[in-house]
Structures are given as C-alpha cells and as structure tokens.
Design goal:
elongated, single chain, 43% helix, four-stranded antiparallel beta sheet, 5 helices, alpha+beta, 187 residues
Length: 187
C-alpha cells in the first residue's frame, strides 16, 4: 500500500507562488473592461433651453415647439408655444431624435449638417434625392442641435414651426447658448 501524505510541501509552495503572480498581474494591469460613465442633462437645463428657444421665436413672431431629448433619444422636455400648430410637436421631436441617432454616425452636430453629409454628390445624370423619411422618427429638416459636455453627447434640442429651418435652428441655438455655461463636468 502506498504511503499517503496530507499536505505535500510542493503543492503548498506552488499555490502561494500562483497567488503572488496573480496579485502582481492584477496590480500592474488594467482590467479588460470597465464601466463607462456618462453625463446626464439635468431637467432644469433642458427646461431652460426649450423655454428660451420658444420665447426667442415668439419674440420674432414665430409660433414654435421646442423639444429636448436625452442621450438615448427619450423626450425630456416639450414646450409648445402659444399658437404653434400641432405638427410642430412631432417634427421638433424628429429633429432632436435625428441629431441623437445619426449625429454620432456621421460626426455632425445639427440636422442641417447631417442632411448635407448624407445627401449624395452630383452624378453625371443628376442627383438621387435623399428620401424624406427613410427611417421612422428621422427628419432631415434644419432645426436640431446637439447638446454636449465636452465631446460627450448628452442630448439634443430642436425647434419646429418658424417659416424656415434656419429660423428654427437660430431659436434652438439661443436655447443652447443659454445653458452652455452650465454644461461642464463640474455642474
């Protein structure tokens, strides 16, 4: 019959050595994955931006709706100004949603820039027009702008209802300008 030992000395030494190497490895290497952190647009800033945009357009005589969405494209604030027509609610959302959805893909910060980037160049036989609504909830109308903290997209603001997209965008820009000083990591 073979003689059996309870704790062979070599096995104990090997375990200690393996634990020491594991400790060194974990100490001097970065983990293979890490949780990402994101900034969140506070509701008070979303409300202030939308209100400023609507107020700016009203002062110019335009009846608009302003929508602010968060980084996931979910509505944070909608303000329908006095006498704004019903379609402006949906259209302002589509513009903001477009900035969140396609802006990062084409590296652009407004619906105007996104539309220009995605419109095909002239062909020898003419242009192939961009479909007006190729994806549900997408609008290539001017009037949507990215809201960023540094380079991180935290939301979008969009306006609809002025007699032209550039006027919508100007009002959205006023709303964005109002909150821009507060869009810092320390707020």
């Amino acid at each position: 019959m073979a003689k059996y030992r309870k704790n062979p000395p070599n096995l104990f030494k090997k375990n200690i050595l393996a634990l020491a190497f594991l400790g060194l490895f974990l100490t001097f290497t970065k983990p293979a994955f890490a949780l990402q952190t994101f900034y969140q647009l506070p509701s008070r800033l979303a409300l202030e931006a939308a209100h400023t945009a609507v107020q700016t357009c009203q002062e110019e005589g335009y009846h608009v709706t302003a929508t602010v969405v968060n980084r996931e494209g979910l509505v944070q604030v909608v303000i329908r100004g006095d006498n704004a027509t019903p379609h402006t609610i949906e259209n302002s959302f589509y513009k903001a949603f477009t900035v969140i959805t396609l802006g990062p893909v084409v590296d652009r910060d407004s619906t105007e820039e996104i539309a220009k980037k995605m419109t095909p160049a002239s062909l020898p036989i003419g242009n192939l027009p961009l479909a007006p609504n190729p994806l549900s909830g997408i609008s290539f109308s001017t009037g949507g702008l990215a809201i960023k903290v540094g380079d991180q997209l935290v939301g979008a603001i969009a306006v609809s209802g002025a007699p032209g997209g550039s006027l919508d965008q100007a009002c959205a820009q006023k709303g964005l300008d109002k909150i821009k000083p507060h869009l810092s990591p320390n707020e």
